[in-house]
Amino acid sequence: MGLKLGASDTILLIDDDPGVREVHRLWLTGHGYQVTLAENGAVALRLLQEPPLPSLILLDLEMPVMDGHAFLEKLGNLAPIPVIVLSSSADDVEIPAAAAILLKPCSPEALLRAIRRQLDAHSIEGQTP
């Protein structure tokens, strides 16, 4: 039984590989997410200047123009959006600005669980008692 996700959640997917972007886009939209694509951190920062803001960011670290580390530094306090880093290097297991880090390749189910966990946590943090 698969997890069903909310259609109101938007994910900003930042990855320089067009094939990876398309596969993730198809898979995520098939699970009820809206997906916005960016090929590097610079494009993503421009997208974040215009509403609506995404509910979550999926971020590749190794990209030309502006890599994931530089993006996280620039994102700073721009918006309280959880970021899940997708990394092919075990050296990247500690990135303080990331809400979660998944090593590539990860299963679609593991990615889906991480997304849901972060969206649920972020939703609870944003509620007022």
Task: Please outline the helices and strands.
Layout: E1 10-14, H1 18-30, E2 34-38, H2 41-47, E3 56-60, H3 68-75, E4 83-87, E5 100-103, H4 108-126
Parallel strand pairs: 1-2, 1-3, 3-4, 4-5
Distance between the termini: 33 Å
Instruction: Please report the number of helical segments.
Output: 4
Low-confidence segments, given as residue ranges, are 1-7
Name the beta content range. 15-25%
- Counted up, domains total 1
Describe the protein's architecture and organization.
The chain has 129 residues and is of the alpha/beta class. The protein has one domain (10-126): Rossmann fold (3-Layer(aba) Sandwich), CATH 3.40.50. Helices cover 36% and strands 19% of the residues. The chain has 4 helices and 5 strands. The chain has helices spanning 18-30, 41-47, 68-75, 108-126; strands at 10-14, 34-38, 56-60, 83-87, 100-103. The protein has a 5-stranded parallel beta sheet. Mean pLDDT is 84; it is low at 1-7.
